[in-house]
Specification:
Blueprint lengths: L9 E4 L5 H10 L4 E5 L8 E3 L2 H10 L4 E4 L2 H12 L8 E4 L6 E5 L5 H12 L8 H6 L10 E3 L2 H12 L4 E4 L18 E5 L10 E6 L2 E5 L6 H11 L7 E7 L6 H10 L3 E4 L4 H8 L13 E5 L15 E6 L10 H9 L2 E5 H7 L7 E5 L4 H13 L3 E6 L8 H11 L3 H4 L2 E4 L5 H9 E2 L5 E5 L7 H13 L3 E5 L9 H10 L7 E6 L7 E6 L12 E5 L5 E4 L5 E4 L10
Parallel strand pairs: 1-2, 1-4, 2-3, 4-5, 8-9, 9-10, 11-12, 12-13, 15-18, 15-19, 16-17, 16-18, 20-27, 21-22
Antiparallel strand pairs: 5-6, 7-10, 11-14, 22-25, 23-24, 23-25, 26-27
Helix pairs in contact: 1-4, 2-3, 12-13, 16-17
């Protein structure tokens, strides 16, 4: 994506009229997702309900924003969060027909680079207003990927001096400045210095550091970040030139190393080599003269900025996610972020398709719903290769879904690479909770969640648990209530329930809740028959205190009061 380090942007549109332009921009940034307003845009990659809340959330998540609407709308929408401390991602307003591209925010985050890229793609002009960019044709305070700016505040004064008429000389290799219109003079007092050496900041120098330094580090150091800083200082190397930390694969799950990489704001990569000096020799043999390694630390300096993707491997990530009941509005932001970062997506095909759309570079592994353990093992195999993997469940992954299978596969494995994978379980809205919310609050007091499937547990256990739950007067939520291979179990379950509950007990039937064909019915236990239920139906049976009363629209509210026994005064 251009020459910047910018993450995939969000293209936000308000109506169908902007979709064609959005698609043209998406061709420039293939990993970008198009966010369309629900009810107006059906062909976007993601839908949203509120423009303002969506834009502010994207901004606070450091996501570049390309909004196809008037610039004033974007400014007023983001105004409440502009004074908050933190990141400032690029924000651009683009005319719906692509006739104007206006960079609004993120001058130091590459917004003008993006504006020029989009202007070329849309055959228009970018409305660049930054003085330095207009005068010199480049933003000196935003060096390209692989380089880091030394001091921002000193840099602003430096550029101000240039704009006031001072000349400048360039020291070191700065190929991206070759086409810039700088007022160069070999005798100039001001200098742009490009190099990895440690230097005292000066108002007469703009320091830019190539990220060409690799530090191999041992995982048994008490404070790896401090050890790296000390080693760099002793070697007169600027910490801003650090491009990567390298460690042994055996240390892949070491939290101290990950904390060090976070503290130093660099990637952490891993290699099979055992000692720091061996790591640098194995990974970067084409180095400048090697530096003397310190205890537990070895430094290597490459002639060019590091291509981190070619150094060792990263720690694999495996996220087990819950999609909720189906609608993207019920999907938590953390789940959406995992889907966006994934290299591989695994799951039952129906659920994988619900999680889309996907980019062309994402690999889908769709399997039968009964192949849970094979799917879990496959996920670990992919993640152990350093890939970012997502295993998809509907509802919540920990409720009769893939989280338990993934953990069971890990528990049974003696493969150390599997145990070093960065494993995360992300929650989702379970079907019972989604159905209950639509009906009101039938699970408002203590309740029991049960699966009526006897595929993985004996039917005798199901009957025993159901009987005890009914004795305890718990509201009941039935998953997997009936199927063609299990046509009689629901009828037997209802026989047990009716031994403890009266025929007027409220029953809520939610089918495909959160999906386009959703239906919700409120009936009584006396009216309920197995023929009214299928595998896609959630059955909620009230306790002795569950109440029903009419809504204004002719339907019913259902709730189980939070008190039990005597009603509080």
């Amino acid at each position: 994506m251009g020459t910047t380090n910018i993450k995939a942007p969000a293209i936000v549109i308000l109506g169908k009229g902007a979709l064609a332009t959005a698609r043209r921009i998406q061709q420039l940034y293939p990993q970008a997702l198009i966010y369309g307003l629900a009810g107006r845009v059906e062909d976007g990659d993601r839908s949203y309900l509120e423009f303002g809340a969506t834009l502010r959330q994207l901004y606070q998540q450091d996501t570049p924003i390309i909004a196809l609407c008037a610039a004033g709308i974007v400014i007023r929408t983001l105004a409440p969060v502009l004074l908050e401390k933190g990141v400032e991602p690029p924000v651009l307003a683009v005319a719906e027909d692509g006739s104007a591209v206006v960079p609004l925010l993120g001058g130091l985050g590459g917004v003008n680079v993006m504006a020029r890229e989009m202007a070329v793609a849309l055959n228009t002009a970018a409305a660049i207003t930054t003085s330095g960019e207009l005068r010199f044709g480049t933003c000196l305070l935003n060096p390209p990927a692989g380089y880091a700016l030394g001091d921002l505040e000193l840099g602003k004064r430096f550029v101000s001096d240039l704009l006031s008429g001072e000349s400048v000389r360039v020291e070191g290799a700065a190929p991206w400045l070759a086409q810039a219109q700088l007022p160069e003079d070999d005798q100039a007092q001001l200098a742009i210095h490009v190099g990895y050496d440690e230097r005292e900041p000066s108002e007469h120098e703009l320091l830019i550091y190539p990220r060409n330094v690799l530090v191999a580090v041992s995982g048994d150091l008490p404070d790896p970040a401090e050890a790296v800083k000390n080693a760099l200082h002793e070697s007169r190397i600027a910490v801003q030139a650090l491009g990567c930390l390298l460690a042994s694969k055996a240390e892949m799950a070491n939290p101290a190393l990950h904390a060090a990489a976070d503290a130093l704001s660099v990637p952490l990569r891993f290699t099979a080599a055992g000692m720091p000096a061996e790591m640098t020799q194995q990974v970067l043999p084409q180095l400048l003269p090697p530096l003397t390694p310190a205890a537990g630390v070895a430094i290597a300096v490459a002639p060019q900025p590091l291509d981190v993707s070619q150094i060792g491997c990263g720690r694999g990530r495996l996220a087990v996610i819950g999609l909720g009941p189906g609608a993207t509005d019920f999907m938590i932001p953390a789940v959406k972020a995992e889907l966006a970062r994934a290299n591989d997506v695994l799951g039952y095909e129906t659920y994988v398709r619900m999680a889309g759309p996907f980019r062309a570079d994402q690999v889908l592994h769709c399997t039968d719903n009964r192949e849970e353990m094979l799917r879990a093992r496959h996920a670990f195999e992919l993640a152990a290769e350093g890939r970012s993997v997502v295993v998809v469940s509907s509802g919540d992954p920990g409720v009769f879904a893939m989280a338990a299978a993934v953990l069971e596969a890990l528990h049974e494995s003696d493969n150390p690479d599997w145990h070093r994978v960065d494993l995360h379980i992300l929650p989702g809205v379970s079907a019972s909770l989604a159905t209950a919310a639509l009906a009101g609050a039938p699970l408002g007091h203590d309740f029991c969640v049960m699966s009526l499937s006897d595929n993985l547990k004996p039917w005798e256990i199901i009957e025993k648990r159901l009987d005890l739950a009914c004795q305890a007067d718990l509201a009941l939520a039935f998953y997997n209530p009936i199927s063609r291979s299990r046509p009689w179990q629901l009828g037997r379950a209802l026989e047990i329930v009716r031994q403890h509950r009266g025929p007027q007990t409220p029953v809520t039937l939610g089918r495909d809740i959160g999906r386009p064909a959703q239906t919700l019915r409120v009936i009584t236990l006396g009216e309920l028959t197995p023929e009214q239920v299928d595998m896609r139906t959630m059955v909620l049976i009230g306790s002795s205190l569950t109440c029903v009363f009419p809504r204004a629209n002719g339907q019913s509210w259902v709730y189980t009061p939070r008190w039990y026994g005597a009603k509080p005064a």
